[in-house]
Structures are given as structure tokens and as C-alpha cells.
Q: What sequence folds into this?
């Protein structure tokens, strides 16, 4: 008889507890945790792990549970939860967008910062460049060999036009000295001289030829022109250390300028035009991501210089880390908005009754019973406030991944696992009860 009664009493106690759970804080936590586990499905354990490890990719962009869980059920549940606390979710979205834009602005700077950096670069290199441009050099055999190349001859004509357009003489001059009239006579000496400015004009002409699509220099010829330009620059740097120092300083001080220019290019793609008129929390993430697919062209567009280098080389590890984290942050936001799309369940609206049905062990039967008109109206009236409180609890937890994980883990724990003293006491009572029953079953003489 005892063996039959105990399971019945246990079922009654469990049912009573289930009906009472929505009416107190601890019970609502259990309901919320079970609901989250239920929608997470077979992936619940993995979801809990991800929620516990959640952290912002960008300072100030705190993720929601759906953004880190990568689970369709959690994502769908979070969309329903937004209705319970729309203000908090709207605020979170605006904070995330603001954090991403702020991180990118930290790279982009502004026009004043770029102008200041350019002025500093000019001040640091002006003296060395002036000295290098005014210096005169005798064209030796090595340079003459370069000047005799067809591509360089073509560039010389362009360099001459550059000088004439600036109303200054071309830097290349040829002088012929009178022949020696002493014993044996001699031949006239032809000497070609070039100024640093003339060599700079030649370098600029080669640069223009490489950049200008109408120059017709493509393929192998373009590679040759780039190689010849490098040899001309090497000769200039070897002939005048001041020129090399100026170029090295100029390149080093150009890098932060180019970084800001790239940052501004990316910022215009992430921040929509409506932001200029006060639109809040809006981003054009897809446009931003497309820029990161063709980085070489993007760098060229931003800096106006094809030789600025690859995006990774130019931006450096810290800036690239920020850019990639912004892209990843946008990606997990997009995933959470699309995962589980189309799922339409009233589980979130009927947390108490769904919990009762599920915990009964016969969810379909009890669920159908609770949906009958009379019982349905009664349970709605009893649990209306409790459901609202549980919904609010879930909505707040989904804004805090660690809190959501805590609810999910708590719902999986058994009461005896959390109360070892109670477990021991029940064990002792069972042993004593068993001894009494055994003694009662022994026939008396």
C-alpha cells in the first residue's frame, strides 16, 4: 500500500508545486529557465556555454543572449521578449550602434586632425626636401643608362611639361666644354647635370603614368615603369642622403594620415546619411562589409595613392582588430535578427500554463485541458500578473547573457542536488521507515 501511495503523493505534491510556481519569485525563475531550455532544444548545453562566455567585441556594445547563442529558438524568443520591454531593447540597440561608430571614429579622427598631421609632416620634411631639390648632380653612367630607357624618355617629356606648367626651368641641363688646346689637342667635354627638382619631376611623371589609365601603360610595361621609377628614386637617395631622410620621414608621418583617411572612408559606409540629421541607432552594415571585400581599391580610393599598401599593412594590428571586431559585431547582430525567423509561438505569452502542461508529464493532454474555455479563463485570471512578471524576467535576462545562462542552469538542477542536507535527511528517514515496515511485517508469536 505504501509503495502505491508514495508515487501518488509525489505526483500530487509535484502538481501542487507546479501550479504554485508562477506565484513566487523562485518559481518564476524556474519557469523562465525551463522555457529558455525548451526553446534552445537539444543545443541547450552549448547555448549555456556560449552565454557564460559572452563578452563585448567592441567596448560599450554589450551583446544580447540571441546575439551570442547562435540558436534559432533563443533568437525567436528574444524577438517576442522585446514586446515585454521594448524600451530596454531599443536602448541596447542604440548603445551598440553608438559603440561601433565611436570605435570607428577613433580611427577616422576628423578633418582638423588630418590637417594638423599634414602640417606637422610638412614642417618636418620641408627643409630636407628643399635642400635635396636645390642640389645639383652630375649624371653618371648609371643614371644615364636609366635616362636612355624608352619609358623614362617618355616620362622625361611629361616631367618637362610639369616644370613648364609651374613656370620654372626644367632640371636637366647639358653643357659642353671647349676642347683642350694644348699638346695633342682634345675632344670637347659634354656634361649633363640635373637638379634634385628635375629628378623629383621625373619621379612624379612616372607616378602619373602609372596612375593614368589613358597612358596605355599596363601589364608588363606597367611593371617595368614601376621598376624604373624605383631605380631612379634609389639613385636620388644614394646621391643625396638628405633626400632619403626626407622621404623616410614623409612616409612615416603619412601613415597616420592614411589610416585616418581609410577610417573616414569606412565611417561614411557604416554611418547612414540620415545620421547627419539626427537619426539614431541606424547603420548600413552591409555597405560597410562590402568595403572589406575589396580592400586594395578601398585604400586607393581613401588615400588617393595606389602605393599606400594593403589594408593590413597600413592599419596595423590594433586598428585592424577594431575594424574586424566591428564587422563581427554587426554580423552577430544580423544573425540574431534572422535566426528563427518566422517562428510564431504563444509559449512566451502563456508561460505559466505551458510550464504546468510540460511539468505534468502529459503536455498535450494537460495543455488541451487548460485550453478549454472555462479553465482557460480561470487560469488567465489567476496567472495574468504572474505571466507578466515572468515575461519581464526573461526579457531582462536575455539582455544579460550570463543571467540567461544562470536561469537555464538553475532550471536543470534537482532540488536534492541543491540541498545535500535534505537529501541525507530523506535517506535516513527512508531507511528508518523501511526498518519499521520490515518489523511490522514479521509475524508475532
A:
Amino acid at each position: 500500500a505504501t509503495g502505491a501511495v508514495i508515487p501518488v503523493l509525489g505526483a500530487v505534491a509535484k502538481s501542487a508545486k507546479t501550479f504554485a510556481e508562477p506565484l513566487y519569485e523562485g518559481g518564476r525563475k524556474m519557469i523562465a529557465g525551463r522555457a529558455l531550455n525548451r526553446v534552445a532544444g537539444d543545443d541547450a548545453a552549448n547555448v549555456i556555454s556560449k552565454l557564460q562566455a559572452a563578452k563585448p567585441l567592441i567596448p560599450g556594445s554589450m551583446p544580447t543572449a540571441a546575439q551570442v547563442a547562435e540558436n534559432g529558438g533563443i533568437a525567436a524568443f528574444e524577438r517576442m521578449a522585446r514586446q515585454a520591454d521594448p524600451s530596454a531593447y531599443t536602448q541596447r540597440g542604440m548603445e551598440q550602434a553608438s559603440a561601433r561608430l565611436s570605435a570607428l571614429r577613433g580611427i577616422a579622427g576628423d578633418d582638423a586632425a588630418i590637417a594638423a598631421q599634414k602640417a606637422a609632416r610638412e614642417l618636418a620634411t620641408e627643409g630636407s626636401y628643399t635642400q635635396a631639390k636645390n642640389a645639383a648632380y652630375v649624371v653618371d653612367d648609371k643614371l644615364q643608362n636609366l635616362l636612355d630607357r624608352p619609358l623614362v624618355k617618355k616620362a622625361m617629356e611629361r616631367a618637362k611639361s610639369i616644370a613648364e606648367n609651374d613656370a620654372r626651368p626644367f632640371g636637366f641641363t647639358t653643357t659642353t666644354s671647349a676642347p683642350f688646346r694644348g699638346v695633342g689637342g682634345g675632344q670637347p667635354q659634354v656634361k649633363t647635370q640635373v637638379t634634385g627638382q628635375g629628378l623629383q619631376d621625373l619621379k612624379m611623371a612616372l607616378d602619373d603614368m602609372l596612375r593614368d589609365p589613358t597612358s596605355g601603360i599596363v601589364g608588363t610595361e606597367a611593371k617595368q615603369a614601376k621598376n624604373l621609377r624605383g631605380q631612379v628614386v634609389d639613385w636620388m637617395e644614394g646621391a643625396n642622403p638628405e633626400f632619403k631622410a626626407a622621404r623616410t620621414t614623409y612616409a612615416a608621418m603619412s601613415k597616420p594620415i592614411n589610416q585616418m583617411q581609410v577610417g573616414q572612408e569606412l565611417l561614411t559606409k557604416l554611418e547612414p546619411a540620415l545620421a547627419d540629421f539626427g537619426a539614431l541607432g541606424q547603420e548600413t552594415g552591409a555597405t560597410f562589409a562590402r568595403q572589406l571585400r575589396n580592400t586594395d581599391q578601398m585604400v586607393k580610393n581613401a588615400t588617393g595613392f595606389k602605393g599606400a599598401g594593403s589594408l593590413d599593412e597600413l592599419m596595423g594590428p590594433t586598428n585592424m582588430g577594431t575594424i574586424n571586431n566591428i564587422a563581427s559585431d554587426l554580423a552577430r547582430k544580423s544573425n540574431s535578427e534572422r535566426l528563427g525567423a518566422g517562428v510564431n509561438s504563444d509559449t512566451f505569452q502563456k508561460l505559466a500554463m505551458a510550464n504546468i502542461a510540460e511539468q505534468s508529464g502529459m503536455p498535450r493532454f494537460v495543455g488541451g485541458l487548460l485550453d478549454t474555455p472555462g479553465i482557460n479563463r480561470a487560469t488567465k485570471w489567476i496567472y495574468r500578473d504572474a505571466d507578466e512578471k515572468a515575461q519581464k524576467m526573461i526579457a531582462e535576462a536575455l539582455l544579460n547573457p550570463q543571467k540567461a545562462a544562470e536561469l537555464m542552469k538553475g532550471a536543470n538542477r534537482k532540488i536534492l542536488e541543491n540541498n545535500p542536507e535534505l537529501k541525507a535527511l530523506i535517506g535516513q528517514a527512508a531507511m528508518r521507515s523501511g526498518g519499521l515496515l520490515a518489523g511490522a511485517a514479521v509475524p508475532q508469536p
Summary: Confidence is low (pLDDT under 50) at residues 8-15, 360-370, 415-419, 436-442. The two ends are 24 Å apart (CA to CA). Residues 216 and 259 are 31 Å apart (CA to CA). Residues 241-270 form the longest helix (30 residues).
